[in-house]
Amino acid sequence: MLSRPLFRIVPDNTRIRFMKGAVAGLIVSAILSLSSVILAFYPGLARGIDFQGGIVMEVRTPGEADLARLRTAASRLDLGDVGLQQFGAPDAVLIRLPVQGDEAGTQRAVAAVRAALEEASPGTRVLRVEAVGERVSSELFRGGLIALGISLLAMLLYIWFRFEWQFGLAAVITLVLDTTKAIGFLAITQIEFNLQTIAAILTIVGFSVNDKVVVFDRMRENLRKFKQMPLRDVVDLSINETLNRSIGTSATLFLSALPLALFGGDALAGFAWTMLFGIVLSTSSSIFISAPLVLFTGAKALRPTEAASAVQAPAA
């Protein structure tokens, strides 16, 4: 009784013909990725202080914060476009100020805001202050994009070394499409784009590659095991055989990240929600993007006899 799992998400004899929708999956994915790139520029990403620069102050008022009164007090200081928002609890407020020049200007701005808030709401306490200059923010933004590029290149080399080049090419194209969709998700939801979300995207890339390597490995085994089976059938068989593992791993990671998104607070919400979206995206892309790419790019190299017979058939 204990020799087999008591619960299977997908029955062992599942034979879903995924490759019947291969073309449709690639077209839909391309449209979504193109739309995500457009959304990244318009309306654009909600850049956090890491990439935009400026000053962030977290304050706590004695009672429930009166945002209108605090906003009026801060706006009178002539410090530029000042933004206030509730931050978690009713008495917690997050204040954003534009870059104030050098360090001395930043200190004067913080002191002025502190005094104005104390006057508007006596007893208000400043819990933390973060300041990033324009030069540092641009360097962080450039470094985050370089990190994404290096990770994609490293994945290409790893899969190319471990498998045939068709697998490496399919994986990297899929990762680029996954990354653009994740950026589109950030643009739609206006989740703050900062170093935490960059870390979430890099984590998604790693998880996505791991999931695709499992499917690719099964494809390679089945190509050797079933030498006469058409490549389309091999791809379908490999996906079905790894479906339990892919869904089970994704569900486990999803359930572990869900409490972080629901109860982790505003500081971790962006990272957690990006992770949740990426988990679902990575699992689906292994089936509907990377597998069809292997099917189309590897038709001649992975099944040369099948390709030759297809060419000779009309002549016969």
Automatic annotation (TrEMBL):
Residues 114-298 form the Protein export membrane protein SecD/SecF C-terminal domain. It is a multi-pass membrane protein. The keyword Transmembrane applies. InterPro entries: SecD/SecF_arch_bac, SecD/SecF_bac, SecD_SecF_C, SecD_SecF_C_bact, SecF_bac. It is found in: Cell membrane. It holds the Pfam family SecD_SecF_C. The chain crosses the membrane at residues 21-42, 140-160, 167-189, 195-215, 247-265, 271-296. Keywords: Cell membrane, Membrane, Protein transport, Translocation, Transmembrane, Transmembrane helix, Transport. Belongs to the SecD/SecF family. SecF subfamily. HAMAP family: SecF_B. Forms a complex with SecD. Part of the essential Sec protein translocation apparatus which comprises SecA, SecYEG and auxiliary proteins SecDF-YajC and YidC. Part of the Sec protein translocase complex. Interacts with the SecYEG preprotein conducting channel. SecDF uses the proton motive force (PMF) to complete protein translocation after the ATP-dependent function of SecA. This is Protein-export membrane protein SecF. It comes from Falsiroseomonas selenitidurans.
